[in-house]
Structure formats: structure tokens, C-alpha cells
Design goal:
Rossmann fold; 4-stranded parallel β-sheet; alpha/beta
């Protein structure tokens, strides 16, 4: 027989469960795309303005389409170009600005406020990776009536979310949809291949070198590179949170990875070939030649060609199947 105490317990349990589901959904744990994709919320209000909760947790409101954009991160500049939205760009980081013939606003680490204000943008897009830069810029830009959108894709899926968002902001949704269809078709084929291979054996272990010795860096779980390797069918030997982590050489030796991937770019301008290193040269994967050097922009930054990078890494890891 159910008494009053039992009824009270049932009610309390139901309320707790409902609250837990509500928290789970609002925090994004039930959505696709990982941490950054979960933090972002997008909607269009009655006035036709796009309202976004960006990766820094701030509410950003933009009148559509956005016509004047400053990009403080080269990866976002490249995305806008691939969307055929470069006409919206009025300012960019130094090298990209020189290439496009528009105003330079400094670098992604040191954006110059005066240069940004000079081109009178409607929106400034920046990486949310460095909160102190984001907060300082947002404070000054908001006083001038300019919105700042801070994004930090940390996976393949979040890169696609970012590309779709930029397409909507600039009125190039059709182009974004076309690009995303191509990307998703390629990723689906890789996913099927990985599933087939994984069912017959373990995933190969991979060490990813962000920067060479003497200060050896690798990627953490909250990075595009980590997710690229995972989507390609590999298993990064370092599996802790963070984007970039310093690791001891002993870790690589102890893990004895099946494959070694080394990026080359701003973070690693002069990478030392593992075969020429006194210790790394003794790794079996290095002696077998299972080493891949890859452009930093392709593997460590969000970019519209991310599926091609996943495919390149997949073919490297499973070359015997090709």
C-alpha cells in the first residue's frame, strides 16, 4: 500500500530527475559537437537579428546580414573566404590583411584597438582562447557600439558549427551548406572505414608533436588536432584535458607509439626530424618510417578543409588498406 511518505518520495524523485535532465540539456551534454559547439546557442529574433551565446559565454546580437567584419584570427579569415564572404572583411591580422589588401589590425595575440575602430566594423570575430584579450577588447568595443564574437572550435564537429554560423551571419548559407555537404560526405566515408578497421583490431597509438625538443609539446583532448587523429582512427598517447601540453621525452619512449605525427608551422617552425634525434630515433615507428610531417594550419586550426586532413591522417595510419 502506498502511503503519504512513499508519495512524497516519488514526487521528490521526479522533480530531481526533471531538474537533472534540464541541466543536462541546457549545458549541452545532450547536443552534438563537443564543448565549444555545446556552449554556443543561436537564434534569430523577431527583428531578424541573430542572437548568439558565444564560447566566452557572452550574448552577441547582430543585424543580418553582417556587412563589415574584422577577423582577429586567420582561421576565421580563411573560412570567410571559402564562404565567398571576403567582401565583408574590412580588417584582418597582419599577413592576411596584406594578402587581401585590407586594414591590418595587428596579430591575434596583439590586436590593435585603434586599427579596429578605424574601419568601423559591425562585428569583430576573435578566438576565445585568450580571455584577457577578449575581455579587454569587448569592453572597449561595446562602448563604441561594436559586437565581439569569441569562438574557439576544439573539434572537427565544432569547426563545422563555426563554418555554418559564419555562413548565416554573412548571408552565405547556401555556400556553407554546399561546403558542409561535401565535408560530411567525406567524414561519413572515413567513419565507415574506421568502424570496419576497429572491429577487427585495436586503434593504432599516435604521438602528435606540437613543438620539438628541447620543450616537447603535444596536444590535449580539447584540441582540433586530437579530434582529427581520433576521427582518423588513431589513439593519441596523451589523453588528458587541455589544448597544448608540455610532456617529458620519457612519456613518448614509455608509450612506444605506433605512429609519430609532427606538425610544422608557427608553433613548430623548425621541427627536428625524429630520425635525427638521439632518443626518438630509437622508437620502432621512427625506424620503420611511420612518421608524418603535416602543416600546422591543416591539423591544429579549424579550417574548411578539415575533412581532407582527417582523410590524410587516416590513409597514413592505415596505408596497408589503400
Amino acid at each position: 500500500m502506498v502511503n503519504g511518505k512513499h508519495i512524497l518520495l516519488i514526487i521528490v524523485g521526479a522533480v530531481f530527475a526533471a531538474a537533472l535532465v534540464s541541466y543536462w540539456w541546457s549545458s549541452g551534454s545532450g547536443a552534438e559537437g563537443g564543448p565549444a559547439g555545446q556552449r554556443q546557442e543561436q537564434s534569430v529574433d523577431n527583428a531578424g537579428n541573430m542572437v548568439i551565446r558565444d564560447d566566452s559565454g557572452e550574448r552577441v546580437e547582430c543585424e543580418l546580414p553582417v556587412e563589415r567584419i574584422v577577423s582577429c584570427y586567420s582561421a576565421f579569415t580563411v573560412m570567410l573566404e571559402r564562404l565567398n564572404a571576403e567582401k565583408c572583411l574590412v580588417g584582418a591580422t597582419r599577413k592576411q590583411a596584406r594578402r587581401l589588401g585590407i586594414k591590418s589590425i595587428g596579430t591575434h595575440l596583439k590586436p590593435v584597438l585603434e586599427s579596429i575602430l578605424a574601419v568601423e566594423p559591425d562585428l569583430v570575430v576573435i578566438s576565445s582562447n585568450r580571455s584577457e584579450i577578449v575581455n579587454r577588447l569587448r569592453r572597449h568595443l561595446r562602448s563604441a557600439g561594436i559586437e565581439l564574437l569569441a569562438l574557439h572550435p576544439e573539434s572537427v564537429e565544432e569547426t563545422l558549427v563555426c563554418l555554418r554560423m559564419l555562413g548565416k551571419l554573412t548571408g552565405t548559407e547556401k555556400r556553407a551548406d554546399d561546403l558542409l555537404r561535401q565535408v560530411e560526405k567525406k567524414l561519413a566515408a572515413i567513419d565507415r572505414s574506421v568502424a570496419d578497421i576497429s572491429s577487427s583490431g585495436r586503434r593504432p597509438s599516435v604521438f602528435f608533436e606540437v613543438r620539438s625538443m628541447p620543450s616537447l609539446l603535444t596536444c590535449g583532448m580539447d584540441s582540433v588536432a586530437y579530434d582529427v587523429i581520433r576521427r582518423a582512427g588513431g589513439k593519441p598517447v596523451y589523453s588528458k584535458s587541455g589544448t597544448v601540453k608540455k610532456v617529458p621525452l620519457e612519456l613518448v619512449v614509455d608509450k612506444e607509439p605506433d605512429f609519430y605525427i609532427q606538425q610544422k608551422g608557427v608553433m613548430n617552425p623548425n621541427p627536428v626530424p625524429p630520425a635525427e634525434h638521439s632518443v626518438l630515433s630509437n622508437l620502432e615507428c621512427v625506424q620503420k618510417g611511420d612518421v608524418l610531417q603535416i602543416d600546422e594550419k591543416k591539423i591544429s586550426r579549424p579550417n574548411p578543409d578539415i575533412a581532407a586532413t582527417v582523410q590524410e591522417v587516416h590513409r597514413f595510419l592505415f596505408k596497408e588498406t589503400y
